[in-house]
3-oxoacyl-ACP reductase (Chryseobacterium luteum), 253 residues
Amino acid sequence: MNVFIAGGTSGIGYALARHYLQKGYDVGICGRNPEKIPENRHENLKPFRADVCDIDSIAAALNSFTTGKNSLDIFINCAGSYAEDVAGKISYEEAEEMLQTNILGTVNCFEAARKAMKGQNKGSIAVIASVSGILEYENSSLYTKTKRSVIQIADAYRRALSPFGISVTAIAPGYVDTEKLRQLNNNDLGKKPFLTDIETAVAIISEAIERKEKLIIFPIKMKWMMKSLSLLPSPLLNIIMYRKAKWMKDDRP
């Protein structure tokens, strides 16, 4: 089995790479900074420098990985960008980075994977979104809107690629205990409800891909909380989510 993971040099992406390596698969990973990968790499791990915002670099890395292989079995896009967007506190550069990585990068990865799997009549493509993308309300953050877009983009590609034997799985996790999450919160995750350890997240994600699930939301408590919130009128949901974001950042109205 051949697996390629964009955004695979750290966090969930690298944890998934280790999971597939333990199963004996050949794994390619790419990121903007492959130097982050630990030095004691597995012999079946092939790292590449590539940026999901540049479709040519993603395509080149994927082509290098698949050269001489019979097929590309799994492609997972774990690349993502986050910046705090409470009360409009976001710079132009942060907004641009989120739009480029989370939306354009998602499309670029689907295109590169689609072309690599063309003619195989099989293959699985997965993308990491966010449980926040489940909710639709007027004043949701830019991050939430981009992750909602990721889910919708995945849905469009699923519909287009299904006749050709290619499955598409959108992953919408809640808070996963990664180094990045700890960095963003000064190592204090006390206000992150239903926190999932990374080993559990990897098990859920890999199983969802194997089962060709359309959309997987986890953990289950977060899923039902979001489903319940989605039933509220938009004005009330706006107020609740804004106050929740303020509380989590220790801001004051």
